[in-house]
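Protocol step 6 of 9: fold each sequence in the batch and record its structure tokens directly after the sequence line. For illustration, a two-sequence batch is reproduced in full.

Sequence one:
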Amino acid sequence: MLAPVRGADGPYEHEHAARDGIQHVLDGQADAVLAGDRARYLEAVDPVASGYRGAQRAVFRNLGRLPLDRWSYRIEDVRLRGARAEADVRLRYRLRGYDRVPVTATEKLAFARRDGRWYVAGERPGSARQLWEQGRMSVVRGKHSLVLSADGGDGAVGVDEAMLRGISAAADRAVPAVSLSWPRPWARRVVVEVPGTSRAMAELLGAPTQSYEGIAAVTTGAGGGSRGASADRVVVNPEAYGVLTETGRQVVMTHETVHVATRPHTTAATPLWLSEGLADWIGYRGTGRSPRSAAPQLARAVREDALPRGLPGDDEFRFDGATDALNRAYEGGWLACRMIADRWGEERLMAFYLKAGEQRPGEDGDHRRGVDTALRAVVGLDRAEFTELWRDYVRDELA
């Protein structure tokens, strides 16, 4: 039997040609971003999509405010539908003086072919809205920080020049504070993104709005040992951050900066109680907060004779769970790190963090064996002994 012969204009060839044409358009647009060439940038945009063209003019203005030294696109997947196409596109960009490695993001784009040429026609549903797509951007440069904000186009909640400068000042204080504790070299710079609202924050992170309600800030980026490592960003929720005291804001910013500094040594083997606990331990240093005031949920558990039997698991740190349980998990991690520093010293705490990150995680992210190995090596206890010591410490500190 003879196999059918696919002609030169078969489906595969059409898709391959479309992919090449779309990549060529994206390459030209990327070059235009770096060259500051507005006309060339807009040449890539569908002339019929008037609303999208208007939005892209604003995007180009915003990109001109960023210290970019890299901007590129790479098609990951394309689906051809006649003169239309949809593609998942990997964006990679780097900020000069701040990013050692590029930031990566996936955009879901629509394309149209007119007169034999492909154009970017819009964003598809489900595509995350990058900060430069969220209204007019503001940029504040600090000694150790770069703060980027967008007004959201629909009335930002209290995000004004004073708030942005306050965030920059908090980040500038956080960087040397973290460097005093963290023993390994790091960039000693932090990039902070401040969307206009909590809804805009969720759109930036590609998550439901309710996921970050009440969360003052998060840090994004790939941990050590991950493929395709990406530069870190601290993302501030202006609604939750704005209601904090000055001390509370500083604790949050220092906490998030710890994540930036420790990222290369934070791996799949690092339990969240340790990574979040260390961030809180450094964040609370020098604030004068007592254990009872900093750990009210665990203090209540002690009073009610309901102290958890074990250290908090990773699933207890989910933002979409119960707030009390989330707070209790953070408090438990903080007190575990505080106990190590109190009993064995700060150097042992840092050594334990590094040793834990060097371990091989178990199946389904099980940290128990790796934590056990790291504890034995650094403090001479197994995980069960350490857990009992932690429970006694929590009782003593919070009773």
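Sequence two, same batch, same settings:
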Amino acid sequence: MQKQAKTKQKKAGIRPVTLLIWDGFGMSKKKEGNAILQAKMPTFNRLWTHYPHSLLSADGESVGLPPGQVGNSEAGHMTIGAGRPVETDLVRINKEIKKNTFHDNPALLRASAHITRNHGVMHLMGLLTNHSSGHANPDHLYALLRFVEELRIPRVILHLFTDGRDTPQYHAVKLVQELQKRLPKNVYIGSIMGRFYAMDRNRFWDRTKAAYEALIGHKGLHARDPIDAIEKAYARGESDEFIQPTFICPNMTCLRCVNDHDAVVFWNLRSDRARQLVKPFMMPHFEKDQPGAFRRSARRKDVVFVTLTEFGSDLDGVIPAYPNRDINETLVETLSRFDQHYVAESEKYVHVTYFLNGGHDQVRFNEKRFNIPTIRVERYDQRPRMRAIEIAKQIEKSLGKGADFVCANFANADMVGHTGNFAATVKACEALDDALAIVFRATQKHKGIVIVMSDHGNAEFVQRADGTPDTEHNPNPVPFLMAGRVPKSLQLRTRGGLADVSPTILELMNVEKPKAMTGRSLLR
């Protein structure tokens, strides 16, 4: 009977299919610090009880990361869209470092040659974090320090962006102290600032302006050393994420900033929180090309700007040390003959477009994209509902217009979970449930299927036993729930991963899975 039902389903194909990615929504039975279990989520709980569901792995090698590393949004969405684990840039660069070929990278050598020829300064900038962050990796920073030491570059300046989200909120002192022990003699720390300023991705240009003006030496606070800067920030009530841009100079007068004819190497891995800061450096007509941004007090000329990874087609002058590799036969490409809609608020828009689409930022297939502007707040625990309802209503509209496939990211659990505010994270999860109720009603109306899943854990552990916040991602499995027009006999296999999601969707829609997808359908 079960085989007959599955055969009938494959012949007919089910449409519409709606994929909801609840970012940062992991599954854990532990009640301690678990905002998800504390939240009132009647719709999700009812559907979980009455419809097929499973748990998926979302960390380590299953999403192209090193073994044991917690998942992140980039790796998660890339894996979902590709239908296979894609070797991440992190793993790719780690292999180069291990083989001792990192120092032979043409982009890095070009930066070195430029400053030698022009008597310039080498600047290294990026996120100072631990090994669990998806945005940067400390091993890459230390590899760069070995690179400049071996080449005997006479003057190297570090610009540090403190974390406080993928690390504990007050962890920067420890990381800086570790860094200082390993600094070559010719390397100096020139500035320090929180990622709130240096890594905005929502076009909150005043934050980017503060970071840029500090990096070029025009405006910022002063401190005699980086520890002094951090301690002063803590005294002002700022955690690592929010440290105001600060110049580091022992005599309080010299500024170690980016000047004409210098070179910059940006060691962040992910482009989504790095591109915005690069634009005022590398766009000659920045003010015109980015309307509503800010007017630069000065533009640095003849700067060689190297990024470890690809930062997008609109930043022509940027030199990627490790350019994108073509990732084809993705879900987006395979569904090209269908009407596809992709929805998210600004915070996660790039994930359902660029990352889900194999690293392609332009519309290439029959896809429509909907970017719901993120509410402007300093911390998302101030508005934990974010844009969940607006996203749900857009999905409702898309289904009403005949979309065959809709994919949406809901940022609440992850972005509010990163604040470490337990009560607010509970409210964030409840907002997800309210949005799900809207989407499920629309799904039933249009006789489709809705899939609820996540890309990594976070909200299931946001508070430690001692009451201190936990703001980092977690390695817990994530949910996979199918509801709506689901054959009663349909069952899901266990022990799947994010790579299995696209093959499952294709089987539901009766679309042949491309050979490149090594994931297997979860349908039994």
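Proceed to step 7 once all outputs are recorded. Observation for sequence two: Residues 1-10 have pLDDT under 50 and may be disordered.
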